Amino acid sequence: MTAATVSVCGMIGWVGLVVPHLARALVGPTFRLLLPASVLLGSTYLLLVDDLARSLGPLELPLGVLTAIIGAPCFLYLLSRTGRGWS
User: Fold this and answer.
1) Which DSSP string corresponds to the chain?
2) What is the tens place of the pLDDT at every residue in 48-67?
3) Are residues 61 and 69 in contact, defined by beta-carbon separation less than 8 angstroms?
4) Could you tell me if 18 and 78 are in contact, meaning their C-beta atoms sit under 8 angstroms apart?
5) Is the distance from CB of 29 to CB of 48 less than 8 angstroms?
6) Phi/psi class of residue 41: alpha, beta or left (left: φ > 0; alpha: ψ in -120 to 50)?
7) What is the Cα–Cα distance from 5 to 11, expressed in whole angstroms?
8) What is the pTM of this model?
């Protein structure tokens, strides 16, 4: 499902990969709190990145470029943190 979402939405799909993990780190695994936290964090993240993309310079950067630049290091950090128990 993740591959299909990224192929349809583009690099904005990073939001769907990273934000729920960050929300779980903030509010815990209780789904009653996790879903609203993910929605609020994801929408806030995209609004901030969109504002940044529009205000960086004379040319408007594609939103997928900034989400990838910001999301990839976060995803790698989360992957390295959760992968400690793997052999």
Assistant:
1) -HHHHHHHHGGGHHHHHHHHHHHHHHH-S-HHHHHHHHHHHHHHHHHHHHHHHHHSSSSPPPHHHHHHHHHHHHHHHHHHHHGGG--
2) 888 888 888 788 777 777 77
3) no
4) yes
5) no
6) alpha
7) 9
8) 0.69
